[in-house]
User: Which sequence fits this backbone?
């Protein structure tokens, strides 16, 4: 299996899968789960999709799709439009999936994730401070970010499994 | 950080991508700068996106709400025995009080008929049951999406409640969905009063679970444990809706423990209450005066029409959206 020489149908499939996962996690991110008086917010899970965005998904349309996912996140969370979209764009620059020449190793990917997460928290806090003239409620900001970090290995594993399954299927056709 | 998995930057190869990224960043910043909280475009897009997402979120949230309910019932069962004892004692007290209230109510009705005053309770009597399909509790915004809207009679400004107390008020209405600003949101400001002392204050959300009580005058009697109710001073929310209890922080600040938001939100109701209308200048009707310059007395028929009868008092009514039952 070659990393760069993927076929156009495979690339199209990767793009659709990534956008589908993004939409699903954006929708899930609007739900607040309250179990035993502990509030669990999934609002930072969509950022995982950008961290695991496929290399072969087509760079320009990927950027446009991620920008629109950011706007959807803003509207679904009733925030000011542009805040999440900006965070997503900056994360895309940080990750540059279109410049990847070989699959990331888990350790490298985790380091990149933590770097992108810190940048996203700083950007989100500062833009929020400018828009709302107040600092965020730190617990509501950091808890979902921590939850997304804990979910990162699970998503990494699932994504690798899916990638292998789709590649095998494409090669057998 | 070594980036062995990445190619060296080649401006020619990915130049277009970086341009698109730059345009995306510029659009994002422009949107943030121009589409503030009250921007019309933003509100209309928000209404459209809420209308699209509401049925989907309703579907996705059902298993989550069921799980929350399961855990909540588990913790409820643990303290059921002690609560049962306390409730029996409370019930005994309340039965005696209800008898007293019935006597007072009958007296009130008689006085109203004698005086010819038209009064009505300020607590809204018509309720529309709705499902909280999405409850956003973010670092800057705390809002709820309901599956009822304009076609069900919801209007901007109406109060949203649970059996335990006020949750927030409607800020955006679509045809089949509406957005609620929670009491603990940064932008929420409602006039409240102490049920014990009638002292007034403004309850200001600050994105924490315990909103602040602001504008408390020095002489006003607020104490920890006081029951907080809406004062209705803004003419938007009705007077007498339960909000929560006063708690005092270690720094000496007074804050509110919101009873309506203490449990996971699933079913809520919208109080179909019309706020006091803004007065509009009207031409005074011409009244024929008698020879002494006074208005003629009302005829017995007119007097009878101005008196409220028991049939005019609206009955408590609960409606559900799309025939749902809570």
Assistant:
């Amino acid at each position: 299996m070659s990393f760069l020489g993927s076929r156009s149908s495979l690339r199209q499939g990767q793009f659709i899968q990534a956008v589908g996962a993004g939409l699903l996690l954006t929708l899930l991110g609007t739900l607040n789960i309250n179990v035993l008086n502990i509030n669990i917010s999934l609002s930072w899970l969509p950022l995982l999709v950008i961290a695991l965005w496929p290399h072969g998904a087509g760079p320009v349309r990927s950027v446009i799709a991620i920008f629109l996912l950011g706007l959807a996140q803003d509207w679904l969370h009733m925030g000011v439009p542009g805040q999440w979209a900006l965070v997503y764009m900056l994360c895309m620059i940080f990750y540059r999936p279109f410049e990847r020449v070989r699959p990331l190793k888990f350790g490298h990917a985790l380091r990149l994730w933590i770097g992108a997460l810190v940048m996203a928290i700083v950007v989100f806090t500062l833009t929020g401070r400018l828009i709302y003239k107040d600092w965020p409620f730190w617990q509501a900001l950091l808890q979902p970010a921590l939850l997304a970090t804990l979910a990162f290995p699970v998503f990494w594993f699932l994504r690798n499994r899916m990638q292998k399954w789709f590649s095998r299927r494409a090669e057998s056709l | 950080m070594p980036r062995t998995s990445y190619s060296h930057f080649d401006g020619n190869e990915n130049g277009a991508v970086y341009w698109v990224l730059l345009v995306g960043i510029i659009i994002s910043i422009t949107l943030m700068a121009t589409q503030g909280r009250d921007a019309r475009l933003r509100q209309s897009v928000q209404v459209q996106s809420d209308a699209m997402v509401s049925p989907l979120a309703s579907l996705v949230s059902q298993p989550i709400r069921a799980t929350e309910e399961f855990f909540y019932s588990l913790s409820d069962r643990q303290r059921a025995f002690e609560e049962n004892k306390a409730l029996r004692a409370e019930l005994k007290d309340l039965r005696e009080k209800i008898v007293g209230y019935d006597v007072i109510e009958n007296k009130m009705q008689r006085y109203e008929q004698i005086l010819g005053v038209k009064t009505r309770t300020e607590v809204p009597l018509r309720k529309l049951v709705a499902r909280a399909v999405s409850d956003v509790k973010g670092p800057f915004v705390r809002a709820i999406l309901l599956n009822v809207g304009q076609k069900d009679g919801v209007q901007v400004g109406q109060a949203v409640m649970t059996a335990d107390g006020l949750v927030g008020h409607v800020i955006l209405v679509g045809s089949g969905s509406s957005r609620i600003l929670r009491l603990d949101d940064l932008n929420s400001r409602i006039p409240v009063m102490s049920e014990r002392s009638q002292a007034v204050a403004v309850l200001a959300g600050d994105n924490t679970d315990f909103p602040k009580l602001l504008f408390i005058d020095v002489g006003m009697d607020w104490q920890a444990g006081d029951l907080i109710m809406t004062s209705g001073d803004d003419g938007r929310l009705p007077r007498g809706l339960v909000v929560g209890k006063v708690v005092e922080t270690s720094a000496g600040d007074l804050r509110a423990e919101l009873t309506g938001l203490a449990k996971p939100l699933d079913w809520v109701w919208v109080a179909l209450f019309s706020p006091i209308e803004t007065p509009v200048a009207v031409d005074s009707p011409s009244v024929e005066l008698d020879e002494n310059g006074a208005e003629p007395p009302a005829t017995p028929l007119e007097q009878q029409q101005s008196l409220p009868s028991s049939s005019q008092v609206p009955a408590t009514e609960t409606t559900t959206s799309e025939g749902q039952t809570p």
User: Anything to note?
Assistant: Strands of chain A lie at 32-35, 38-41.
